[in-house]
Specification:
signal, Ndc10 domain-containing protein, Ndc10_dom2_sf, DNA binding
């Protein structure tokens, strides 16, 4: 245990030697707020040099704090100007994006309206055609075999110079693969 105490004391003294400047500065600053600490009753903390150092430290800190406060006050208007500029820039960008999105939505709505109208017209034409075909079928009797063959013979005798167009519902004829 005695040997361990010596190692601990040796380590503590080394720490004090390494941190002596920091400890002196801290004790000088703390002297103004806690002048009755027991350490201030011992040398070098009760010497006139240390007391002068403590007073100078307080004045140096007060001056540094005042300079920092002034710089901060000067900085506040700059920050306000920067924030205002940032907000204005972002607002303009957002308005631009919103206008672009509104144009795109309007274009999409117009395209959708056009497609809807086209589909409605096509559906109406198809329904009308279906009704016409049904009416035609109901109004005219189906041709008999005799009349159908006569009609075909007449067509065969007349030469055709044009290729008939396929009906909308029919697929165009394609030639068989070779």
């Amino acid at each position: 245990p005695v040997h361990q105490r010596d190692l601990a004391l040796d380590g503590f003294l080394k720490l004090l030697l390494n941190l002596h400047c920091i400890l002196l500065q801290d004790l000088a600053v703390m002297h103004a707020t806690h002048p009755n600490f027991p350490i201030y009753q011992f040398a070098p903390f009760n010497s006139p040099e240390f007391l002068r150092f403590a007073e100078e430290s307080q004045m140096t800190l007060a001056q540094a704090e005042e300079e920092a406060r002034m710089q901060l006050q000067e900085l506040v208007p700059d920050i306000v100007i920067w924030v205002k500029g940032f907000i204005e820039s972002e607002t303009a960008h957002n308005c631009s994006c919103q206008a672009e999105m509104q144009r795109e939505i309007q274009d999409a709505c117009s395209a959708l309206h056009t497609v809807t109208q086209t589909l409605t017209v096509n559906l109406a034409l198809k329904q009308k055609r279906n009704v016409d075909v049904r009416n035609l079928s109901a109004a005219q009797p189906l041709p008999t075999t005799g009349t159908l063959s006569k009609s075909l013979k007449r067509r065969q005798m007349q030469p055709s110079t044009t290729v008939p167009e396929p009906h909308e519902d029919e697929q165009p004829a394609t030639s068989p693969p070779p």
